[in-house]
Amino acid sequence: MTFSLHVDGDRWRQHLAKVRDEVRESLHNGRAGARFGDIVPVAKGNGYGFGIANLAVESTRLGLDRLAVGTPHEAAVAAAYFPGQILVMQPWDPRDVIAAEVWDFIETRDFASRVLRTVASVEALHGLATTGLSGASPERPVQIVIEGLTSMRRFGLAEPDLDALLADDAIREALRTRRIDLQGLALHLPLVQPLAPHVETLESEFHDTNVTPTLASDASGRVKEAWSWTLTWIRALGSLEDAGCMLTDDAAAVWASHLDDEELRQLRSAVPEIPLRVRIGTRLWLGDHEAMHARGTVLAVHQVAKGRAVGYRQRRAPKDGLLVVVGGGTSHGVALEAPSPASSLRQRAVAAGTGALEASGRARSPFTWDGKRRWFAEPPHMQVSMLWLSADDVRLAVGKGGRVPAVGDEIDCRVRHTTSAFDRIVGLD
Prior knowledge:
alpha/beta, 31% helix, 23% strand
């Protein structure tokens, strides 16, 4: 019951290198050197259909020394395949006792010094400084990235909370003794431009910093947020240094998601000396759609007369034709979709039409044969799907030089890679 991902390895890797180089050009603004930042590939969840291990290996192949994962569970997997620094984007919080157990496991492993925690709440950072540093030392500090609250409003500290927190004596003492090692600021920006950019910082506050607070007049809402937060962060670091805290150059880094190349150029021009670490997932791994194809293996083909009942639900065949059983079901992610954003009239019309068809017992499958998506005979099973091919469609295809599907053939399938699980991946050797 095989469901496969076929990858044109050469083409896919050329795309990865192209994205890496485009981002680096925007980041460096004509200047060489990693000190100005770099691309940070994201390998989370199902690894965008490729698996976290494969993406970790490919990140090394790209010559990158930082990787971002979603959870500490994923960090434990990635560490076996990636030799560099690994950022866990899920905020660390001791109140999440299940994740805390995984962190305890990580702390016992040799790769612990390569794993960075994201801290996104007052309670978490205060708890880390007061009770969570039992095994920390200047030789092996707890490395953290602090997340700032953006208009995404999912995780993060607001500016006033950050100022108050970094003035806390316990936190400053942990930084002075280098039991906590600040590795920068994380910003998770929305996919679309924010309706009301979350910007509280005023330019007048930064005349005494070493950063010129200039921003292009046409800067996007995301750039304004990132710029404002970057200046806030610089001010916070200056306060910590004045208090005698031990900070490395990496403390000034800004880890940002969802900035396009032009936005990166604008932000780079506004804060020319700040290391920008750009987290990229979808654009990197899935940006060249033609480099990868999901396919299900044909497992059985049955001739079915009109009115014949088939499947678990005994639905009747609408016409004479073929019932094709193909590998690929719900366990593989076939026909599983996230709710539609339906933000335009067209999207709403498509969602309404799809819902009306499903209400009538008809659903078009993501499997394509002879250039057309085919109808499900019934909802997909756990590991297979059953498809209708009408006799008329078969005759038309054969008349054009095609042939009837046979056991062992593969049929293309359109899937959402972030929800897909493949039995095998072909082409990455």
